[in-house]
Amino acid sequence: MVEKNEYEGVLLIDKPVGITSHDVVDRVRRILRMKRIGHAGTLDPLATGLLIILVGKATKLSQYLMSLDKEYEGTITLGATTDSQDADGEVLSRRPVPELAPADLQTAMNGFVGDQYQTPPMHSAIKVAGVPLYKMARKGKTIEREPRFIRIASFSLHQFQTPELTFSLRCSKGTYVRTIAHDLGEKLGCGGHLSALRRTASDRFHVRDAVTLETLGSLDEAGIRDRLIAPHDAAPSLVL
């Protein structure tokens, strides 16, 4: 028997900074009073923006929605590397930032566009022999990681004021934006790390259509149902 308040569909959440994607799922479970809830595409605690939440039978869409191309806006801080490749990590090194013109930066960024293999960072949830890499990293361990195929469709400079640059990025699933930030810093010879990130879109799903957790918590049942995208509308080519 289906409970009165049981929901089904795809929910677009604007994730706040400082919490994990799993934390968001837990919050939504409490608000909707349901257990069968998941997400399609993890965001690090540092990141904000679009998180696709799957509710009820829509959890079957996970693999389809995770495979969608993503769009991001963010900030890279040059001159310092960290162990996690983002601002949440410990600083490993500091180097002076050379004089760079915006055109020089864009030229370097253009070198990341296209098909390539990316080595995942140690501070990631990828499991090796059943153990997440980040747990090994916390113990000071570094192991060889298998590179993964990714595609960068565009990597554009918005603004540069030493030592920070803002950018937009379009990429395939599984791309570690913080690794791109780290690699760009190495390419420029000064090091760098990701200091802010916001996912703005996953294919046709956009953060402008997302709801915050606070707003979701204030909605009544009708309001929540109005926010849910029907599974057949989210993935019309699939039959549930």
List the helices and strands and how they pair.
Layout: E1 9-15, H1 21-32, E2 37-39, E3 48-55, H2 62-66, E4 70-78, E5 80-82, E6 91-94, H3 102-110, E7 114-118, E8 127-128, E9 131-132, H4 133-138, E10 148-161, E11 164-171, H5 177-188, E12 192-202, E13 205-206, H6 213-218, H7 221-227, H8 231-234
Parallel strand pairs: 3-12
Antiparallel strand pairs: 1-3, 2-3, 4-11, 4-12, 5-6, 7-10, 8-9, 10-11, 12-13
Describe the structure.
It is a single chain. The protein has 8 helices and 13 strands. By secondary structure, the chain is an alpha+beta fold. The strands form 3 sheets. Strands 1, 2, 3, 4, 7, 10, 11, 12 and 13 form a 9-stranded mixed β-sheet that branches. It has a two-stranded antiparallel sheet with strand order 5-6. The protein has a two-stranded antiparallel ribbon with strand order 8-9. The longest helix is centred in the first third of the chain and has 12 residues, at 21-32.
> What number is the mean pLDDT?
91
The assembly state of the depicted protein chains is single chain
Runs with pLDDT <50, length 5+?
none
How would a crystallographer describe the biggest sheet? 9 strands, mixed
C-alpha Rg, in Å? 19 Å
Number of domains: 2
In what range is the share of β-strand residues? 25-35%
CATH class of the largest domain: Alpha Beta
